[in-house]
Each structure stands twice: as structure tokens, then as C-alpha cells.
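The following record pairs a protein chain with its ligand, aspartic acid.
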Amino acid sequence: MSYAHNSRRSLWILIGLVVGAVAGVIAQVWFGGPALDATVANVIKPIGSVFLRIIFMVVVPLIISAIVLGVVEMGDPRRLGRVGLRAVAMTLLLSGLSVVLGLTLVNVFAPGKRIPHEVRDKLIASYTVQAGDKIKAAESAKPLSQTLLDLIPTNPLEESVNAFNPDKANGGLIAVMIFSLFLGVAMTMLTPGTDAPLRSLLEAIFRVCLQIIDFAMILAPVCVACLSFSLMATTGWELLHSLLAYFLVVVGGMALHQFGVYAVVLKVLGRKSPRAFYREAREAMLTAFGTSSSNATLPVSMRVAEEELKLPPKISRFVLTVGASANQNGTALYEGVTVLFLAQVFGVELTLAQQLVVALMCILAGVGTAGVPGGSLPLVVGVLMTIHVPPQSIAIILGIDRFLDMCRTVLNVTGDLVIATVVSRGAAEDDAI
Ligand code: ASP
């Protein structure tokens, strides 16, 4: 696909996003009420979901083929180890920086101390039902040992089938990735040639999945317009007013990370011009914003990495696929800010040591969050329970969560592309030695 074609496509997605959002605000102001809510729920949102569903359709085969091929193409397990270690180190570095940034801002601006008690109680009352669902999800959490064990799937097919169903999956997509890793490493150890048919099959599956994503991307401008319309037409604007300070801290922190931290890391560790990077990665960033899902954006990120950023596929496929689930800087920042904000709202004072525990939990929660819309909410509830803030308090932020989800997903996806850029540079230097 040519550069001009892709940049035209990202322009159309952007136009869809803006047109949908503006129309949604106008619709709410002029026609807001049950009729609009019903039209959004029964017509507009379903149209937007067509695009998401086509993409989700190929996520599992794409993840399996991308990881196996990534590992096989890297060939030498030692090389895989080096790439893996660098990716893990970068994930910890970027997530750590994002949480520290978020916690600093929330301590300095203390948005939770600006919420009057009546507003707090009203918000909790109006989102109680949705909050109950998130609390149930967090309460059914397994002990840590079982969670870790479940990452090694006893039945990879079952995990693949239930990958998007948290009630039935044990390890979910990460377990599917671990299986793919085993498959790939085992293939590199066979007598050369033995694995050729499997390799060609996986290569074909990979290409076919990308082709299907291309079909979905044709629908992207219209579907993204419908998704942003639905969001804007159903957002409670008065709500945003009472949560403005919290909203600004989250979005401000994310903007600093997206355009400050990433730019420095790209320049210093990736030797890449940040300006060129943002230009080349914009299709992936827009898709992330439109879908609120790192997993749904993965195929677009892979294409962007290969065709625009010109990263070696053997590195980028592997790093991006694992990163879509495991590296979520926007989510980590958001979780840190939200937990501390809610603690402030309820007057729970946290010591520095407790804040460090929150930071650590948020970094880990970023790794454990599913790359789907709203994936982080059950983990926020989990962290709230640990620091003795009432878990129902999540209701306070639910009304504006979708927009923040769109923003944090942009960071999550950009972070994966930043890591892929840095790790590719390291691998190129190794090869040159
Ligand atoms: N929607 C986010 C993602 O897919 C996850 C979350 O923070 O809820 O990356």
C-alpha cells in the first residue's frame, strides 16, 4: 500500500472522527432524550461496531502467526532472548515513567479535593449498577499463583476460543501468546526444512489476516464517525464539568507522556526524529483513538511498523504483538491517577510507601490489562480494594471513562511502536558488530 494511500486513509479516519464528534454534540444539545439514546443504541453504535468486529475476527490467528513467524525468523533463541529482554526493560521503563508522571500530577493538583460531597454522592448513585459489574469482576479475581499458572495454557484451543470472554478464559490472549512462543521456539530447533509446510501455512494466514483488516479499514471512516457520534451524544456534559480537574490531570499527563517522554526516548534511544515518527505512526494512533482497543489496532500497528516506520518485520511483529497486551503506559498512568484521585475524594491519605505500592500495582496492572475497551476498569477496582477506598467509588468516573479510554489507548499503541523502534535499532547494532 502506498504512502499516499495510507495518508489519505488516515485523513478520512480523522475526518470521520471529527464529523461524528461534532454531530454527536449537536444531536445531544438539540435532540437529547430517550429517542436519541435509542437511535444511538440500536442503529449508530451497531454500525460502528461492524468495523471492530471484523478486526476482532482475525486477532487470534494474527497473534499466533505473527509471534510464531517472528520467533522463527529471529532464528537464534539467544537473539530472541536479547530482543525479549530489551522489550521487557523498555516496557518497565516507559510504564514506570508514566505512573510516576501521573502520580506527581495528581499529588500536585489534588483534583479529588475539589469535588464537593454532594456531587460525589450523586455520581455514585447514578452509576451504581455499572460499578457493581466491575466490582464483581474484580472480586472474582484468582490468587496470584493461579493467575501466573494459567498463563501456561493446558488447552491453547480453549484459550483461543475464549480469548475475549474474561468469564471463561483462564489466561486469555497472553496464554495464546505463550503457546505461540513455545511453538515458534520448538520450530527453530527442528532439523532445517521439517517445519517448512507449517511455516508457509502461518505465513499465508498472516497475509490473509492483514488483507481482511484492509477490508475493515475501508469501513473505518464511517464506523469511527459512528463510534465518536455515539460517545459524544451520550456523554453527560455536566458530569465533565464536575470532573474537569481530574479530566485535565489525566489528559495533561497523557499529553506530556505522548509528546514529551516518547519524543525523548525516540531521539535518545531510538535515534529517530520524533516528528517523522508521529507522522508515520498517525494511522495507528487514530485507529487506537477510534476503537479504544490495542488489540483491534494491532494489525494496523504492524502495517505501520513495516510500511511507514520501515522496521524489520521479524522484530516489529514480535514486539508489537506482545506489547499490545503487555505494554500499556496510558493505562498505567490512568490507573495511578484514578486510584489516587478517588482516594482524595474519600479523604484517604496515602503515605509515600503506600503510593509506591500503588505505582507498582499500576505498572503490573498495565501488563495484566486486556487490550479491549474498558479493559482496565476491573483492575482499578482491585487496586482500590487494596488501599481501602470503597470500590463503588469507581462509579464517579465511569461516565467519562470512554473518552479517557480512547486517549489512553493512543498511548498504549504509540508506546508499543516506540519500543519496536528502539529494540529494532538495538538489533541492527548487534548485527553490525
Ligand atoms: N482500552 C485499553 C486498550 O485497549 C485498555 C484500557 O486501559 O482499558 O489498550
